[in-house]
Amino acid sequence: MNGPVTVPTSPDGVPPEARAAHQALAQAIEEHRFAYYVLDAPTIPDADFDRLLRQLEDWERRHPELVTPQSPSQQVGPPGGASFAPVDHPSKMESLDNAFDRDELQAWYRRTIAGLASGDDAEAASAVACLGEAKIDGLAVDLIYRDGRLVLAATRGDGLTGEDVTANIRTIGVIPARLDGPAPELVEVRGEVFLPLDDFQRLNRELTAAGKSPFANPRNAAAGSLRLKDPKATAARPLSFLCHGLGLGREAFASLSQAYRRLAAWGLPTSPATAPVADWDQLWAYVEDLGRRRHSLGHEIDGAVLKVDAFAAQDRLGSTSRAPRWAIAFKFPPVEVTTKLLDIRVNVGRTGRVTPYAVMTPVQVAGSTVEMATLHNEDEVKRKGVLIGDTVILRKAGDVIPEILGPVAAQRTGAERAFVMPQVCPSCGTALSRQKQGEVDLRCPNQRGCPAQVVERLIHVGSRAALDIEGLGDKAAAALLADSVVVNEGDLFDLTAADLMGSAFFRKKAPKKQAVETGELEVLSETGKKLLDQLELAKSRPFERFLIALSIRHLGKGVAPQVAAAMGDIDHLARASAEELAQIEDVGPVIAEAVQQWFAVDWRRAIVRRWRAAGAMSALPAPTAGDGADQGGAAAAGTTASGSVGTVDQSLAGISVVITGALPHHSRDQAAAAVVARGGKATSAVSKSTGFVVAGDKPGSKYTKAQALGLPILDAAGFAVLLADGPEAARAVASVGP
Ligand SMILES: [Zn+2]
């Protein structure tokens, strides 16, 4: 169902290019649907997805022969991939058709009136009473109340069958377990589970503080939270809920507005943004007003939904195969604003790369203030055609990184000036150069002494992907260098309290009593103490994390676990020939060359020597660190001599796992490290010998190949099963083949 969509050839005269275009669109849509629904990690903005779907429908309108049951146009909701028990909905949960502008919305309104006028008891009319609602960007669920008690809750799934999430839904405080007052025997309440924006931001701060990956946007956060395996974990997430319809039980009411009033009386949350609209003028005014208020509702919305209010009228209008005729979603366009481009400056990264970025007049866009945006490189600045002083169009869809689309040329005054890429490093004054001919990026070659690069490298050593040293953030790193407490990262593990006292950043006023007793007016601050403690802890991090910390070009979190596993220790790595390096899984000649170049430099080797002399980087790879007692392959926890807990779990021994992209709850390096820590291999190429493919963000070609080879494919939940319960349990939840 998630695979390439095959369109049967038929002797019908559909031009081959139409068939090819249709098939390409269908496949792209399937992949995006998989990313959106199964991985909770959309790969493109919703507006772009909708555009693809409409292009597909255009082809199908022109060539009806292209419509097959497999076409995405005939399906609603997600493809398979459930990890909660499947449950059939008592009545179908339909999805809605979309309108993208005023004309399309008005065409729907007119169609609706015409549809009703042809009924027996309706005369030709110019208006039909509707309800306007906010289209909440969350996760649709179906709640079933029997005799007033919540007995079942399910996700939408494919509209007919969803996942049983009752236990998790019960943890959402605003959803009553019992309806307040008399209710029909069976009531099916539809609504949206979502995370309010404030709670979303707080959750992300907490996740970041706990060293976990934050969610990309509130919708992913809501979906991820609702589908946690442990209801207690879901309970800790501040999920909320608003009703948006009824399935079974609607016979008891004459209209949707009447039903909403009863739902509210029963104690179910209904949206204050819902309002009756009596005619077209009111309807359009509602949509426009909601659009203006969309960022002040406390939760994300991506449009308005308009529904015919009276149930009798809804029933007369009925549904197409895909969506009801009595409702439509009006999608708001992605948020674009204009602001002034004040300046283009450059940033020097830890490997010397010089990146231009835009400094703008601060502007509110999609709920946050934006004043800077990366411009990537000199060519990109040229391609966008922006001048300093220009009014520029800034775009932000959802929570993605803000992007400058281009200038508003009509607003130029003639005072604008072109950006000139600096020829010398803004930090150290060294002439910039391209490392290799044909490279786009300019670099500062003064890697040893360029302050900007040293600070960035210090920050990188402390980052989560590397040694995860709390207290070694950008301010601390800048202070360490500016006050000459360190020359470079080689000094870090030798730092003492006395050293840190050399920087005001790590000092505080001594308590009075202490000052009187000792005569010392200043003492080490909490910040300083924490940094020393954290540095001590970091000394026993796994070898692969130190590899990342060294800032060897191209040797990032993607390949560090493989290099660490293959080399075992730093001496071996420093001695390794290019051929030996290139044989490591995922390491090609480029990385091999970068490693050799890195170790060829004296001051860099000195960093390694200093770290080792200070007792860092001595932790051995986990599997060989135990006392050899665990040869049976059973999962057991061991403690290494240095005190860090390493596992001797060998449950994935001999099994190679391909992780194709980011997962909602693991960063890719965490996921790869988790596999390696269990004795498995994390590889990047899909082959017949691959044990499992974990489908992350953009599962395109690897995913398709895995299906073609009949390999077991795991989603995020399946991956959790693999790690917790081993390969056999994972095979039971994996999907195989198209
Ligand atoms: Zn420099």
What does this structure look like?
With 738 residues, the chain is α+β, with helices and mostly antiparallel strands. It folds into five domains: 16-80, Orthogonal Bundle (Helix Hairpins); 98-331, D-amino Acid Aminotransferase, Chain A, domain 1; 335-446, Beta Barrel (OB fold (Dihydrolipoamide Acetyltransferase, E2P)), CATH 2.40.50.140; 451-613, Orthogonal Bundle (DNA polymerase, domain 1); 651-736, BRCT domain (Rossmann fold), CATH 3.40.50. It is 35% helix and 18% strand. It is built from 27 helices and 26 strands. Strands 12, 13, 14, 15, 16 and 17 form a six-stranded antiparallel sheet that branches. A five-stranded mixed sheet has the order 2-11-10-3-9. Helix 25 links the parallel strand 24 and strand 25. Residues 1-11, 77-82 and 620-647 have low confidence and may be disordered. The structure holds zinc ion.
What percentage of the residues does DSSP assign to strands (E)?
15-25%
Distance between the termini: 6 Å
Ions, cofactors and other bound molecules: zinc ion
Based on the coordinates given, report the CATH architecture of the largest domain: 2-Layer Sandwich
CATH topology assignment of the largest domain: D-amino Acid Aminotransferase, Chain A, domain 1
Specify the overall morphology. Answer: globular
Number of strands: 26
Alpha carbon gyration radius: 30 Å
**CATH superfamily membership of the largest domain, which one?**
DNA ligase/mRNA capping enzyme
Q: Helical residue percent?
A: 25-40%
Structural class: alpha+beta
- The CATH class of the largest domain, by name, is Alpha Beta
Largest sheet: 6 strands, antiparallel
The helix tally amounts to 27
